[in-house]
Amino acid sequence: MPHINAAAALQICVLLSALPAQYFISRWYGTDSAQRIQITERLIIASWSSFTKSCLSRDAWADRLKLWLSKTRTCLNAGLLILHFRNWYYGEKKTKIGDSEAETHSYFAESTHVRSPKPEYIQFSVGQVIGHKRFGYSGVIVGWDVKAIAPEEWLQHKYPPAKQGLKDTPHYRILINKANGYGKSTAYVPEEEITIIMGVEVVHHPDMKAYFSGYDGSKYIMQPWLKKIYPHD
């Protein structure tokens, strides 16, 4: 229910003070009772008329209701604006974090973007068994990049100034055979450091079934999801 404003309260006070006002009126205009009654009636009628116009009028209540609704709408709009800004800010922040995570997972030939067409200078294919020329371990290729895609810190450590050129050559992600014997389960190496092992070579690695469904005598057969990424391998 709308509250009574200061003007209405003042009018009520004036109405209630009609009788005390009569005393002062009588002192001012004399003691004639008819005159006092007439003046008092006029005062009461004027006060009542003003009170009804301000507090009992339908139009007055409608105006107060409009004012109240206007203030309420303003508060709601402000609240919605704050809510939208909050959602935008945190949503944007979350999106940026998600993009950062996606970039992290695209390192080391883990990106899921389709490698098509396949450049002619990419010599090896996913599923081929390889041997490392310097370290001697064997493994199977599970992904490749046309050049090294890795954190800058890793690249600086991996490739000192004398080997900077290797960063721009094809790189392969390898599941290392009998990984426990080498202290790590995967490797990311440039093309010049590996060679293909011909013939049957069984690769033992806990993630083999996630990437491959079998072996066809020359290389491992990619799972459907991996084949979509490397359709030409």
Blueprint (SSEs and pairs):
Elements (H helix, E strand, L loop, with lengths): L5 H11 L1 H12 L3 H24 L1 H48 L23 E4 L5 E8 L6 H7 L12 E6 L9 E5 L3 E3 L11 H4 E4 L4 E3 L1 H6 L4
Antiparallel strand pairs: 1-2, 1-5, 2-3, 3-4, 6-7
Helix pairs in contact: 1-3, 2-3
Task: Identify the notable features of this structure and list them briefly.
7 helices; 5-stranded antiparallel sheet; signal; alpha+beta; rod-shaped; Hemimethylated_DNA-bd_dom; Clp_protease_adapter_ClpF; two-stranded antiparallel sheet; 233 residues
Explain this structure to me?
This protein is of the alpha+beta class and 233 residues long. Helix content is 48%, strand content 14%. It is built from seven helices and seven strands. The chain has helices at residues 6-16, 18-29, 33-56, 58-105, 152-158, 208-211, 224-229, and strands at residues 129-132, 138-145, 171-176, 186-190, 194-196, 212-215, 220-222. It is rod-shaped, with a radius of gyration of 44 Å.
